[in-house]
Amino acid sequence: MRKDMQHNRDAIGVVDEVIIDRMVDRLVRQDLDKAALCLHRSPDDGVHEMLNVFGRRFYAPPHRHPLKSETKTILRGRLLIVVFDDAGQITRRIILGDPATRIRIVRLEKNLYHTNLPLDEIVVFLETTTGPYLGPDDSDFASWAPCETDPQAAAYKRRLEEGA
Question: What CATH class has 5-161?
Fold first, then answer.
């Protein structure tokens, strides 16, 4: 099991402030960029719901899900969703949790290149998509953007955040 991910084992998945606070504490204590709690019980389930906690330095390279749409619901903090065309040009920026925009939920249709960037020290959101998990075929990472380990990733992330 991945260090940053936990799985629900009960027939009923409940998330309260205590669980969220524990995830935030674990993220900070273990110096993680991301922590997740899968509310679904199996990678084969038809619906996948993940409670995600991102630290400020988290970076996910732009990617798309060829076969799946996804919905994000913000619970704490501000999350920048950047959407790109196939050539890597930004087509839209959406900030979840910003008091000025008051956007709480966003749904992205399948096959849209996007990335999720935390704008606060801690960001918590619920992500819902369809299952089953397809492994490497679940996401198609953009060839025009740096991966997480690329030395240029931090500078690229800062450029994406400009204007947010």
Answer: mainly beta
